[in-house]
Amino acid sequence: MGLPTADDYLPGHGDPSFAxxxxxxxxxxxxxSNRLEGRATLDVEVLEETDRLVLDLAxxxxxxVKLAAGWASDKTSRKKRGPALKKFSARSHRLVxxxxxxxxxxxxxxxxxxxxxxxxxxxxxxxGDAGWEELTDGVIVAAQPHGxxxxxxxxxxxxxxxxxxxxxxxxxxxxxxxxxxxAKHTRRGSSETWVWEQKQPMATYLATVQIGxxxxxxxxxxxxxxxxxxxxxxxxxxxxxxxxxxxQHEMVDVFExxxxxxxxxxxxxxxxxxxxxxxxxxxxxxxxxxxLVRGDWDATRLIAHELAHQWFGNAVTLxxxxxxxxxxxxxxxxxxxxxxxSGGPTAAQQAARYYGGLEEKxxxxxxxxxxxxxxxxxxxxxxxxxxxxxxxxxxxxKRFFAMLRAWVKDFAGASVTTEDFxxxxxxxxxxxxxxxxxxxxxxxxxxxxPQ
Length: 451
Known about the structure:
The protein is of the alpha+beta class.
């Protein structure tokens, strides 16, 4: 029997027959030898009758797997007898759990996996490499879209959101940054343990770990809402740091005004000592290379872009990768919103500039389904942003931004589609968004610039 695929853009990832509701990860990592040992406990709900569960786990070996009825986080549900595990086996970066009988829809199970190995990125022909990667002195995890299996067994599909607890023990002197809130930090001998909890649902590709010799950098202000915002980094030029992040709190203010309250408990930025080609998105934090600690527009727009993903991509997440414009188009348009609000070119001026760039490129990309090869093509970002600008021009600022605030409020924690957005936009603005935006979304020719 072939192994399941949950999303055509990521063949060989994800099992639609079940969902993970909570991940509890206890990991130990030796920085010097790149050795990871872990125990992952997954609270699973069966969505379709099945006699097997297929997890994603790449480059790491499972030594022990246990299956129990009920959820580990719900002691009362564990009194029932459940299916037994016949065997487990590794196949093509997957961990296949064969059960002794069919399991009915709605069944709750706990899966515990003990595993270890030397983690490294997962490389695919279409999407390149992603996942756990060694830095000069530390670790970066860039999981989008297929890298999560390089450090924990998971159901790697964007529509399967779960809560997380991560305990990671590392060599003393290294700091661990991860999603959510720091619940505990202890030092014992030559090691330190960092415990992070992400209580809001999160897609697997947004789960991250950043390990380095980091310290706190003080920001010059705080958001008006009081949302905690912080930056951790190694040694940086102080002037360059302030040029890059000195207005981070203002950026939060602008986005809260336009998109609604910040959707999580805090926001952090990690700056690696290594240069990075692009910054990295993950839930509640963003990661930048030291080469991006600058105050010019090309760096500033990326700081705005990654922050905006907390609303568009992390709180409200696509159901299928073909709708990637719902993340990248929205975050790109947020760059233009910040430009306008901070005294730079208006969103209309930015839109005109980037429209000119699209005119010089091939018109063969379908925004609602660009294909795996083009899902991160720059045209997805810019055409997606221009799609939003076309709607804004049509309905006016008041209705447009009220619609965006309602989009985040109504769909936070959910997985959405383009059709969901069009229905929402139509309801909130009174304009038939499906008709208005069809040329931008469903046709390859570049529509006229929205006036």
